[in-house]
Design a protein that fits this description.
Blueprint (H helix, E strand, L loop, with lengths): L20 E4 L8 E7 L2 E11 L12 E7 L7 H14 L12 E8 L18 H18 L7 E10 L8 E4 L11 E9 L16 E6 L2 E2 L5 H34 L32
Parallel strand pairs: 4-5
Antiparallel strand pairs: 1-2, 2-3, 3-5, 6-7, 6-8, 8-9, 8-10
Helix pairs in contact: 1-2, 2-3
Protein name: Exoribonuclease phosphorolytic domain-containing protein
GO molecular function: RNA binding
Main location: nucleus
Length: 294
């Protein structure tokens, strides 16, 4: 992230700064893979089961059935949760090789672990899910799929959120990466950006040497006041840089899982103070390199 962005945020971050990223592989019982992902206090948990037997009414003859459920931090799943589940299904489907396991079921369950400060993630009808929590759910789902290693993948989906702070004295609104819940009242717009990272995609101008190309799969960026194509492009560019950081954390976690499964690896050292840190707890899951790209 650039060191020249102005420091105007409540927590002292630069406009293009992410909060501390945490990633834990939970090892939940009776699922094939599970992971907890968070930007700061905005955390989500996801589990993956499959391929498993599918009910006849859900069976697809040419590919696996992808079934996604989203659970709020409190209460029962409502309209907002079901709408977000449909969105995550659309986001994750391009990353999965579902034709490899026809007539089976792959089930992803996402659980919000925050959101009480904004109404997002607590099952309140019409309150929606804030963009950062949506991004955490996407990343937790991707990490759980990597942890399972049982679902063939053509790439990995990474997501971040972008917020918009309007200013009447500036020609352009200030865009900030990964807004925290405390920053939401200041925003005049926000959105989640989800990218597919895969080596089969064409290289873009933003592509780093050690990071595969990515393409934008989905965004719900919107604002309370009109914005133009230039602003949307700036938001996408900012989000892509943030998504590359998330991809790097997922790659590090996969490398650690591989080393852990052979008994030759040690937990990665934490980065220097002031930089983002990740957590990779012990896991017995193995990762099949032939089934996924990262």
């Amino acid at each position: 992230m650039s060191a020249h962005s102005p420091t105007l945020r409540l927590d002292g971050r630069n406009a293009d700064g992410l909060r501390e990223i945490t990633l834990n592989y939970e090892g939940l019982d009776r699922v094939d893979g599970s992971a907890r992902f968070g930007f700061g206090e905005t955390k989500a948990l996801a589990s993956v089961s499959g391929p498993i037997e599918v009910r006849p009414n859900l069976e697809l003859p040419s590919q696996a059935t992808l079934d996604i459920h989203i659970r709020p931090v409190a209460a029962i799943s409502g309209t907002d949760s079901k709408a977000l589940a449909a969105t995550l299904k659309a986001i994750l489907t391009p990353a999965l090789l579902l034709a490899r396991h026809p007539r089976t079921l792959i089930q992803v369950v996402g659980q919000a672990l925050c959101g009480s400060d904004t109404g997002s993630g607590i099952g309140s009808a019409g309150r929606g899910w804030n963009a950062s929590l949506t991004a955490s759910l996407v990343n937790a789902s991707s990490a759980a799929l990597l942890n399972a290693g049982s679902v063939p993948m053509r790439g990995v989906v990474c997501a971040v959120s972008v917020g918009r702070i309007a200013s009447g004295n500036e020609k352009e609104a200030l865009l900030v990466l990964d807004p925290a819940e405390a920053e939401l009242p200041r925003l005049s717009g926000s959105g989640c950006f989800a990218f597919l990272f895969s080596s089969v995609l064409p290289i873009t101008s933003l592509n780093e040497a050690d990071i595969p190309p990515c393409s934008l799969l989905w965004t719900n960026y919107s604002a309370t006041t009109p914005f133009n194509e230039s602003e949307l492009h700036r938001a996408r560019t900012l989000a892509e840089r943030g998504a590359q950081v998330v991809w790097g954390k997922l790659k590090e976690s996969v490398a650690w899982m591989e080393a852990s499964s052979t008994g030759k690896g040690t937990q990665p050292k934490r980065e220097r103070a002031g930089q983002q840190q990740e957590q990779f707890p012990e896991s017995e899951s193995e990762v099949d390199d032939n089934k996924m790209e990262i």
